[in-house]
Design a protein that fits this description.
By secondary structure, this protein is of the alpha/beta class. Helix content is 31%, strand content 31%. It has two domains: 88 residues, Translation factors (Elongation Factor Tu (Ef-tu), domain 3), CATH 2.40.30.10; 111 residues, Rossmann fold (3-Layer(aba) Sandwich). The protein has a seven-stranded mixed beta sheet, with helices on both faces. The chain has a five-stranded antiparallel beta sheet with strand order 5-6-2-1-7. The structure holds flavin-adenine dinucleotide, nicotinamide-adenine-dinucleotide and FE2/S2 (inorganic) cluster.
Length: 284
Amino acid sequence: MFKIKKAEFLSADVKLFEIVAPEIAKRRQAGQFIILRLDEQGERIPLTIADSNPEQGTVTIIVQGIGKTTKSLNQKESGDSIMDVVGPLGKASHMEKFGTAVCIGGGVGSAIAYPTAVALKEAGNHVITINGARNKDLIILEEEMKQFSDESYITTDDGSYGHHGFVTDILQKLIDEKRELNFVLAIGPIPMMRAVAEATRPHNIQTVVSLNPIMIDGTGMCGGCRVLVDGDSKFACVDGPEFDGHKVDFTNLINRNRIYQGLEQESLKQHECQLLEQADKKEE
Ligand code: FAD
Ligand code: NAD
Ligand code: FES
C-alpha cells in the first residue's frame, strides 16, 4: 500500500497528490511516469511524475478526473492509500542546452510538461512557457511555471484570462517575429500536439511531444501502447512517451485511443450510479 501524504484540488477536476514511494522518488527523472492501481479490481493507469522529493520519499502526480479510475482517485484524501504504484517507467526526457526552448502545456498537459521545463532551465536553456486552458479556472501551475520561465504566456479559449485563443497562437507569433527557437516541447490534447508539430515543421524546429496511448503493463510486453513513428511501430511505455512530433502518426493514435470509448463511457456511467446510490443510502 502507498500512502497519500497530501491531496489538494488545483482546479475543479484536477487534483495534486503527494504519494509516499521512496524508491521511485530516489530514481525518477523528468519525463518518466508511474502506473497505479487503486485496488484489487482496479485498472492500471499511467500518470506522469510531476515532481519528487527524495528526502521525504514522495512523488507528486497531478490528475485530471475524466473517467472511472481518475475520478475515483480524485475522491481520495491525505491519509488514504493506493494499492499499487509501479515506476519510474518510460525514458527520461532528453536533456541538453538547445538555446531557446519553448514548453507548451494544454490543460492538464501543463502538469506533464512542468518537470521537463524545469530540467530544460537547469540545463541552461532560455525557457519560454505557454500554458493554455479552456478558461481561467482551469489554468494550473501558473506561479510554478513563472518562477523558472524566462518568458511565460497564458492563453484561454474563452478569453477569460491571458491571450484569447489557443496556445498555438502564441507559438505562431514567436515564429512570425522570427525569434530563434531551437526546441519545442508540446503536451496536451492530441489535436494540440499535432497543431504544434505542423506550426514548427516548415521551420525545422526540433519538436517533441509526449504521447498518451492506452497503457496496460508499462513494460513493453502487452503491445497496448503501440504508436506509429516514422512508419515504425514503437511502444510508448518503453520507447517513449516522448517522440519527435514531426514523425508521429497522430491519426493512428486518435483511432487507437477510441477503441474502448463505448466501454469507458459505460464504466463511468456505472461508477456515477454507484456514487449516487451511496449518497442516497447515507441520507437515509
Ligand atoms: P477512462 O474513461 O477509462 O478513459 C478516458 C480516456 O483516457 C480514454 O479515452 C483513453 O484515451 C485514456 N485511457 C484510458 N485508459 C487508459 C490507460 N490504461 N492508459 C492510458 N490512457 C488511458 N493524465 C493525467 O491526468 N495526468 C497525468 O500526469 C497523466 N500522465 C500520463 C502519462 C502517460 C505516459 C499516459 C499514457 C497517460 C497519462 N495520462 C495522464 C492520462 C491518463 O492515464 C488517463 O486519463 C487515464 O488512464 C484515464 O482513465 P479513466 O479510467 O479515468 O478514464
Ligand atoms: P483542452 O481540450 O481544454 O485543451 C487545452 C488547451 O490545448 C486549449 O486551451 C488550447 O490552447 C489547446 N488546444 C486544444 N485543441 C487545440 C487545437 N486543435 N489546436 C491548437 N491548440 C489546441 O484540454 P483538457 O480538457 O485539459 O484535456 C487535456 C488533454 O490532454 C486531454 O485531451 C487528454 O487526453 C490529454 N492528455 C495528454 C497527455 C499526454 O501525455 N500527452 C496526458 C494526459 C492527458
Ligand atoms: Fe504494454 Fe506498453 S503498455 S507494451
